[in-house]
Amino acid sequence: MFDIYTIIFLALAVFIFLRLRSVLGQRTGRERPPYDPYSARDGARGASADNKVVSLPPRGADAAGKAADAQPREERWKGVALPGTPLAAGLDAIVAADKEFDPAHFLTGARAAYEMIVTAFAEGDRRNLKNLLSKDVYDGFEAAIGEREGRGEVAESRFVSIDSADISAADMRGQNAQVTVRFVSQLVSVTRNSAGAIVDGNPDKVTDVTDVWTFARDLSSRDPNWKLVGTEAGQ
Fold first, then answer.
1. Per-residue model confidence (pLDDT) at position 71
2. What span, in angstroms and rounded, lies between the C-alpha atoms of 137 and 213?
3. Cβ(185)–Cβ(166) under 8 Å?
4. pLDDT (tens digit, 0 to 9) for every residue of the chain, 235 residues total?
5. Residues 129, 6: Cα–Cα separation, whole Å
6. Helix axes 103-123, 135-150, angle to 10 degrees
7. DSSP classification of residue 225
8. Residue 41 carries which DSSP code?
9. CATH 3.10.450.240: does it fit domain 4-233?
10. Looking at residue 56, what DSSP letter applies?
11. Domain-by-domain residue ranges, the chain?
12. Nearest to 234 by CA among 185, 191, 171
């Protein structure tokens, strides 16, 4: 017979799994994910030129794409990309293939995924990393975790803030949409050996970190999720 603590832990495990499953997810109207964290927000928020709020795409609709099509080209990606730039052209190409793509919606998920991936890597949480990384990126992360464990080291990472997350590149490669995001964050990180002595980092120092990550999604697939396909240190 299940006691109350078993039920609580099972419920927590289900919540964490569904949270990871839906992060960076975009609905296409064909799939039915068990949980969409964005739909729980105020779906009645309007979007207009006056308040400059970009509404999240409604369920099963292409309102985001239609809104972008209706705007003058010089206003379409205001605050995201300058008109006539490769970034604006790349965003146009993605919206042409996926009418529900919304940069603001995407960046909300990207910020959440960034923090979750950095934290999971520090904790050696391979299971959660698999949900968010492409195979090639996961293999690299897994190898680094294995080397760290082989040395008997333990890493700790704590976010102080994510100061900015900006789309720096976007394009379509066949059926794959790719979006690159430049993250600027403040992080406290430290690595300790098996005896607890610090071998890298400083638990009392906040470090400025810039990362450039590329996320991709196969638009021909029913899977609504984006995955991390490339990482590099930014300037």
1. 60
2. 11
3. no
4. 545 444 444 444 444 444 444 445 443 333 333 323 323 333 333 333 333 332 333 333 344 455 555 565 557 788 899 999 999 999 999 999 999 999 999 999 999 999 999 999 999 999 999 999 999 999 999 999 999 999 999 999 999 999 999 999 999 999 999 999 999 999 999 999 999 999 999 999 999 999 999 999 999 998 889 999 999 987 6
5. 25
6. 30
7. -
8. S
9. yes
10. P
11. 4-233
12. 185
The tokens of 141 are what? 């992360």
Distance from C-alpha of 35 to C-alpha of 197, rounded to nearest angstrom: 42
Q: What is the pTM of this model?
A: 0.69
Nearest to 109, CA basis, from 30, 177, 172, 56: 56
- Rounded to whole angstroms, the Cα distance separating 216 from 97 reads 14
Cα 222 to Cα 14, 21, 94, distances in angstroms: 22, 13, 16
Q: How many residues would you count in the chain?
A: 235
Which residues fall within 8 angstroms of residue 125, CB to CB, at 6 or more apart? 119
Q: Are 189 and 160 in contact (CB under 8 A)?
A: no
Place of tokens 């099509």: 69
Q: What is the distance between the alpha carbons of residues 101 and 106, in angstroms, rounded to a whole number?
A: 8
